[in-house]
Structure formats: C-alpha cells, structure tokens
Amino acid sequence: MLKRNWMAGWPHMTARAIRSSLITKIFVICFISIHVPLLAVVAHVLGGGALSEASILLVLLISTLAGTAGCLLSLWRIIKPLRQLNQSITRYRQEGSPVAIAVKTKDEIGTVAQAVSSLVTELDSSLKTLTLQANTDPLTGLANRRFILTKGTEALEETIRSGDPMCLLLFDLDHFKGINDAFGHETGDKALIAAAQAIRSNLRPNDLAGRIGGEEFCVLLPGTNLVQAQAIAERLRTCLENICLEPLAPGRITASFGLAQSADHFSNFQKFMAATDMALYRAKQHGRNRIHCEPQNALSYL
C-alpha cells in the first residue's frame, strides 16, 4: 500500500524537485539535450527508417541541432529572472523608482531575485524617509534651511532662463525671545508651529516655505511679481496677527517681513537672500509688524 502511494506521488515529487532546484533543472536539461541524438537514432531505427550512413548522420545532425537549440532556449528561460533583476536595478539607478519583478520560479534564482527586489524596495523607502528628514524642519514640518537654499538656487536659475518673475519673502516673529523668556520654550515652540500652520494656509501649490532660523521663515514665490507677493505677504501678516494661542494675549504673535523680487544683479541665491534680509532689517527698524520691499525700497506700513 505504501509502495503504491509512493509510486503514485513520485511524478509530483519529481516535478516539485525540478521546479525548486536550479541544479536539478540544469541537470535535466543537459541530460535530455545530450541524449536527444541517441533517442532520435533509436526512434529512427525502430520506426523502420533507412540504416544508411547518410540517413543516420542526417538524423544525428538534425537531432543535435534540435537538442542544442532546446538546451539554449531552456537555459535562457531559466536565467530570465536574472535579466529582469538587472533591468530593474539599472532602471532604479537611472530613474530612482523601484520596479517590481514578477518572478514565478521557485528555484535559487527566483529566491535571489525576489530577495533583491524586496531589498531595493525597502532601501528606496528608507532613502525617501531619510531624504524627507534631511530636508524638513522637525518642529514645524516646513522645509529646512538646506532644502530652501537648494530649491532657491534651482528656482532662481529657472527664473533667469525663463525671464519670469520670482519673489522671496523673509520674516521673523517679532520679540520672540520675550515669548520664550516670559512663557517658556514650550509656548515658544507652539508659537512656531502655529506660524507654520498659518504659512501653509496661505501658500499656493508651487510656493515653498521653510524655517531657516530660530524664529526666521522663508517663502519662495516663483512666477510672482512684487505686487502679487505683497498681497500674499499681507495675508500672511494678518493671519499671524490673528493667531490665538494661550497664554499669549491676542495679537501677541506678529512678524516683520522683508520682500524682494529677482533681478539681473542677483547672480546667485545668496545675494537674493541678502537683499531680502536687508528689507527685513528695515522693516524691523521702522516699527515691526510690517512689510518692506527690496530693491524698490518701497516701505509699506500695513
């Protein structure tokens, strides 16, 4: 009974062993390919074919070519997951996005391909997380100074190429040290978070805001002229002034704004920021909670 059961299950076990073992696959392919000429000659003789040397040689030649072709095709199919894996890794290096590999084989090649594919996906996820952390201010969730400088340089270069306007907005929360001294750093952090939320609520999809210092913020306004930027700055100034945050008195959170539009003499983003920072300094000089524009030197008491 056990023998009959073993004999009945033998084909299934053999097929499973072949599917799960690369060495077994290669052995079976090579064994069959090598013996194709012999099997062809036996079949030719048993089938009553001519036994002349020419006919036997012809059978051997054709069967050898057929066996070789079958061997190459089978090996090509076996290593197909490796080619897919190589293409996926190459595309990931070029485009930066992992490509899933549909590997159906269960042998060693399939196992390696699946493992590498999973590893690339995990590494890509970790890389994106690390990139986000490296470019984000942890307290406010806005961009950090490093990311602002990088994107600001790119935006200014694009502005110079296209000729479109671009404005830069810098602002400080007024008397922020007094908030920390009087109410503690926890309240100061809450004020910074509230300011970040106010910034987000007033930004357009293409704008980019960041925290570049303790209480200093920066907003990139691509495709924006000075008049449009002033309107955005005024909305933001009003929004900050209306923040209600206990235990601070209403209107305690205000900000001074420096604003500048890109110009030909801004050969790099650092000079652009320096001009905007000068406007911010003048806004503080003239009483705070206001907007000052550069390079037009048009002070706006808002």
Number of helices: 10
H/E element sequence: HHHHHHEHHEEHEHEE
Radius of gyration: 36 Å
Portion of residues in helices? 55-70%
Which strands sit side by side, in order, in the main sheet? 2-3-1-4-5-6
The CATH class designation of the largest domain is Alpha Beta
Give the overall average pLDDT: 84
Q: SS-based structural class?
A: alpha+beta
- CATH topology label of the largest domain: Alpha-Beta Plaits
* General form: elongated
CATH superfamily of the largest domain: Reverse transcriptase/Diguanylate cyclase domain
Total strands: the figure is 6
Low-confidence stretches: 296-302
For the record, the count of structural domains works out to 3
Largest sheet: 6 strands, mixed
Q: In the CATH classification, which architecture of the largest domain applies? A: 2-Layer Sandwich
Terminal CA distance reads 98 Å
Strand content: 5-15%
Oligomer: single chain
EC number: 2.7.7.65
Organism: Agrobacterium vitis (Rhizobium vitis)
Pfam family, one: HAMP
Protein name: diguanylate cyclase
Which helices and strands, and how do they pair?
Blueprint: H1 2-20, H2 22-46, H3 53-78, H4 80-95, H5 108-135, H6 145-162, E1 166-173, H7 176-183, H8 185-201, E2 208-211, E3 216-222, H9 226-241, E4 255-261, H10 269-285, E5 291-294, E6 299-300
Parallel strand pairs: 4-5
Antiparallel strand pairs: 1-3, 1-4, 2-3, 5-6
Helix pairs in contact: 1-2, 2-3, 4-5, 7-8
